[in-house]
Automatic annotation (TrEMBL), chain A:
Residues 54-234 form the ABC transmembrane type-1 domain. It is a multi-pass membrane protein. Pfam families: BPD_transp_1 (PF00528). This is ABC transporter permease. InterPro entries: MetI-like (IPR000515), MetI-like_sf (IPR035906). The keyword Cell membrane applies. Coiled coil: none annotated. Belongs to the binding-protein-dependent transport system permease family. It comes from the Bacteria. GO terms for cellular component: plasma membrane.
UniProtKB/TrEMBL annotation, chain B:
Residues 57-241 form the ABC transmembrane type-1 domain. Keywords: Cell membrane, Membrane, Transmembrane, Transmembrane helix, Transport. This is Nitrate ABC transporter permease. The lineage of its organism: Bacteria, Bacillati, Actinomycetota, Actinomycetes, Pseudonocardiales. GO terms for cellular component: plasma membrane. Belongs to the binding-protein-dependent transport system permease family. The keyword Iron-sulfur does not apply. It is found in: Cell membrane. It is a multi-pass membrane protein.
From TrEMBL, chains D, E:
This is ABC transporter. It comes from the Bacteria. The keyword Transport applies. Keywords: ATP-binding, Nucleotide-binding, Transport. GO terms for molecular function: ATP binding; ATP hydrolysis activity. CDD domains: ABC_NrtD_SsuB_transporters. Residues 2-235 form the ABC transporter domain. It comes from Actinophytocola xanthii. InterPro entries: AAA+_ATPase, ABC_transporter-like_ATP-bd, ABC_transporter-like_CS, ABC_transporter_ATP-bind, P-loop_NTPase. The keyword Nucleotide-binding applies.
Amino acid sequence: MNALLGLAGLLGFGLLLEVAPRVGLVPERYFPPTSTILGELAGQVGERAFWVAVGDTVLTWLLGLAIAVALGVVVGVAIGSVPLVRAATSSTIEFLRPIPSVALIPLVVVLHGSTITSTLILVVYAAFWQVLVQVLHGVADIDPVARDTARSYRLDRWARVRYLTWPTALPYVVTGVRLAATVALILTITGELVIGSPGLGQLIATARQSGAVPAMYALIVVTGVFGVLANVVTRAAERRALHWHPSMRAEVPA
Amino acid sequence: MTAVLTRVGLALGLPVVLVAVWWFASAGSTDFFFPPLRTIVEVFGPTWFGERLVDDVLPSLGRLAAGYAAALVLGVGLGVLIGSNRWVRAVTEPVLEFLRAIPPPVLVPVLMLVAGIGNGMKILVIISGCVWPILLNTVAGVRAVDGVLEDTCRTYRIRGTLRWRHLVLRSASPQIVTGARQALSVGIILMVISEMFAASSGLGFTVIQFKDGFQIPEMWSGVILLGLLGVLLSMLFRVVEHQVLSWYHGSRTAQKER
Amino acid sequence: ACGSDEGQSPNAGEADKVTVGVIPILDVAPIYLGVEKGFFEKRNIDVTLEQAEGGAAIVPAVVSGQYQFGFSNIVSLLLAHSEGLPVKMVSNGNNSTGVDGEDFAALMVSADSPIETAADLEGRTVAANTLQNIVDTAVRASVRKAGGDPTKVKFTALPFPEQPAALASGQVDAVFVVEPFQQAVLGQGGRTIASSYVDTAPNLTVASYFTSQRILSENPELVKRFTQAMQESLSYANGHPDEARAIIGSYTNIARDVVARVTLPKWPAEVNRDSVQRVADLALEDGLLKEPAKVGDLLP
Amino acid sequence: MLTVDGLGKVYASHGRRVEAIGDLSFEVETGSFVCIVGPSGCGKTTLLRCCAGLLPPTSGTVTLSGSPVTGPPEGLAVVFQEYGRSLFPWLRVADNVDLPLRAAGVDRAERRRLVDEALDAVGLGDAHRAYPWQLSGGMQQRVAIARAIAYQPRVLLMDEPFAAVDAQTRADLEDLVRSVWQRLGVTLVFVTHDIDEAVYLGQRVIMLTSSPTRVAEDLTIDLPDERDQLTTRGDPRFTELRGRVYAQIQKAKLEGKAR
Amino acid sequence: MLTVDGLGKVYASHGRRVEAIGDLSFEVETGSFVCIVGPSGCGKTTLLRCCAGLLPPTSGTVTLSGSPVTGPPEGLAVVFQEYGRSLFPWLRVADNVDLPLRAAGVDRAERRRLVDEALDAVGLGDAHRAYPWQLSGGMQQRVAIARAIAYQPRVLLMDEPFAAVDAQTRADLEDLVRSVWQRLGVTLVFVTHDIDEAVYLGQRVIMLTSSPTRVAEDLTIDLPDERDQLTTRGDPRFTELRGRVYAQIQKAKLEGKAR
Ligand SMILES: Nc1ncnc2c1ncn2[C@@H]1O[C@H](COP(=O)(O)OP(=O)(O)OP(=O)(O)O)[C@@H](O)[C@H]1O
Ligand SMILES: Nc1ncnc2c1ncn2[C@@H]1O[C@H](COP(=O)(O)OP(=O)(O)OP(=O)(O)O)[C@@H](O)[C@H]1O
Ligand SMILES: O=[N+]([O-])[O-]
Ligand SMILES: [Mg+2]
Ligand SMILES: [Mg+2]
């Protein structure tokens, strides 16, 4: 049901963007109607270069996301579990977190040139903070009564992480992954666009430099579709992993 | 007193160590792109505390403030609307996720068509990125309003603005604040991005100009300035948060102690 | 293309693998063409072309050894050189056509604009793809030439693709565009008020291929072969514009009918040293450079 | 008069179907004090929520003074079982009590008086400016009660309001509720699982079976209107009535098991 | 033997100083059943947490079988007052009961037997696969009790474990706890604010004053070991002991107010 409504929403949005340029609300030259964009997209889909770029982008994106999540979870649990370490690192985290990843572009270009590695570094850097901050919140959220319960029954360190810390932090991790997925996607495309590493972003840059407006929009649509897919997947994972969580219990209307 | 000292020590300890490591590790650096920290510090003052403060830094901050404030209003407003209606939520979610996934740099040309190349466009770019964390968190916060409180309002016939102010917004406020905090760091990034494309002044523009002009120590000083700015804004944010959410932190602590 | 044979590599063993950083624009058609024609292969160079966003990203990549060679406009190279980066030009890149009103780049205004000459730009805003670079230097040269005061012209950074729309909607008073965006502006009725590259210097060398001092000292012989291959490519492209147009379609997205219409740059084999010196002088005058450039050290 | 007629409620969610209330009918005279007892999970809270118009019943109706209840009627107050969650954590104690009065458009001076009186009545005269989470569970519960009292409802529904307080405070609060009831002439429905409490407080005790819930017995408590913790609980009639309720519940429980 | 010697606990946080326990000393014989009563907020939970080694006392010591308690000792189980928060919401009921046994390295078959037995004993034989939050409050509390029973502790600390259950279930659980105590020979410390319950259950009742907490009285309950809800509660000696405790608490309360 929700999927149908969502689809309706997307269709409506597409229709709006079809009609607006057609009735002259926005200049058609720079705002091609949906049908033109989709037509262009259909053309792109037939080309090998498109799929190679999609492959590069998806690879960079997922790899960067995976590294960021793994790193964020491990570092977050490690830092969050020890209050002293948490206190000692928090100011540094506050400093590093807002440093715009775009400011690192010259740096990574120097180190790795216009390669996937450069973009990957940007992606990991940006997505890492999303996960880390969430995990830190999650670990801090352990219920003291639950913690006392675990202690009084003498669960060892590993059992505590496995049965207490991890489940408590999991909802936060999932939120972190959802946020990080989008940030990683955005940085993947941006990196490709600005650094020129191979992928959809680079195709977008080329299309822009060539003044090929519909082609550019077609590629942007692909990015958006990735975003929607990422949301669908993380939502489904959320429902499976967190079926016990209050937010999921309330999902079905009473 | 000792408690305050401990906190200050903990807050400054690691940064001091890291800066020291950087200072000494880079001291003899001949690498063009990794100048000694000493050099960077030396150029920092002359680079930023002159005309640039007025011509570049302040206008950038002004745009950031404007965009951030607008995103706050927009995000909370739309978030409350979407969060309190299941149908609206179902219809809009994929569209929002679609729009959210579009990287701001590719959005810039589109926004230029809408808002020109002046401050308006840059503020729009900042809004276009800042609005998402606020919007999504507001939606989540509004959805999580406690059922018993909801019932309390219904039985006592607390409705209209009183209900919005005292139930919906307040109970969503911890989440909204979380979103607003994320949006702040996003905002700084977008302040830079918005100046990457059509600008003739600004903090981000200047940093990029340094990069393109191979003035590497100046570029580094800009990156550091951006970091410091982030810290400063996040400290400011914390002060505000402390005001707005004192009840929340208090009740959380109380729950933990009980 | 003359004299290229004498440099042909005698050691027919393993080919030297070389990565060249380029920008996906018309200007680099010769190297694509050269690779296709085998001008590099026959000198035992195995070229990979990497597309980067702009010259500013290519310079650090070449200096750090990520790329062995790169393509950049000469002002970026002058700036890099003056900041102490060890860069060295190895071959010409591309030149203006030298024909006023028929260059591959132009200073343009919209159809109904009151602006007639570059001197009218005083107090107006001009869009340039990057600031403190070759474009604004060239535009200022046009203003000077037309008798205006270049310090009174305001510039705003705007990527080429966005310029036609910005001009049409009146957000800027003039743009400086290269092909294919010159065609786009013409298509919306825009007028050319100056050919700034032509105004800057006769047969201005706009961009060049370069390498790092390290490559030069470690493998001067490779650099020599690369230069020769480049020169052959340039000459070939200059002599076969149709083939150049055809290859442009392969690495850009420019629509076929537009490619057929665009004005191509000139691709002489040799760097126009006087023009580089002239640009260096202008950059000094405009404040881009803080001290006179040692142009001789940069030139091949 | 509050009339519950053929009330039934089925929860169906997550593919699980729970018949919380089978078929309930009873009446509560205007101004009377009725206690409802029943085993845990028998649907007491569900019943109260239906009476308050917070939950649409699956079958049957609730009528208040002749008009059917579809949403929370005017002049109704509820003290919820989850006292901790029914107070606004971002409002101070006095503001929590004040908010419904503001919503009702009571003027400032009058509001102030009502809030002060109500908080004094529950023994929290000095807690005006505290936040709810700074109070113990029992104190929080008293704030919720004060809010209901200050509202001066015509109908007051209370759902196990004393579960979290200690014996002594509980006794005090029981007496408070009775005095409020007598003073305001409010119609009071009081849910508890403490049999002694039900007998001590009410004019009637309605006993429910475990689900699907029906009325097991409707017992009139013919104790004198003036009650106090010592004499009333010592009264042999009290012991007798208490025994009646116990036996009934035991019976309902055995029946429930046999089914 | 569990010895509490000169125990004191001061909470100091956020600039606020609360002396939760003043100076407490008492002993609990191995295998005995001691009830602790006291007004709300007098420090009963604090005392229990110190005994469990979960909270370091500010002064004094707790000793179990001769060795000082610094962390949770082996063979100890606690049933927390906040039952709802001591169950892991991400584990099913049976897994909640099972987890401490797994941590203790009990083998699978034995674990299974213990879990089944314990859940049957608390009347939740059919709730194995439910999640805690799918149960009513009373049922959740019973899960926590089942977990403690299955663990077969040598020392069992229970903090107002029956606050959320209805009268009948409560009576059943009281009898269950007594039978478990007799069967396992466990040392049992039971905190409650229900005086009747304390007298009915314990061999001794320790009454605490309100804070700063001290022992007001330590009363031996000389009722026969075989107890049942009807006869024991009807016993005149029960009424007498109960009266003693009431009077003592009333006294402590008045003293507290006078101070
Ligand atoms: N929102 C709900 N969804 C599904 N089932 C529910 C819901 N609320 C209550 N129930 C079920 O309905 C039955 C009655 O619940 P209710 O809360 O009315 O009982 P109660 O008599 O108030 O119990 P207690 O004495 O424990 O408060 C229970 O079996 C419960 O599990
Ligand atoms: N973590 C804490 N920080 C500060 N004060 C606390 C903390 N825990 C308890 N207190 C205070 O210590 C006193 C004793 O609390 P405790 O929870 O031990 O009482 P209790 O006898 O268990 O009460 P109840 O019967 O309500 O459960 C109270 O005044 C309480 O406010
Ligand atoms: O290469 N150009 O900057 O024109
Ligand atoms: Mg209930
Ligand atoms: Mg307690």
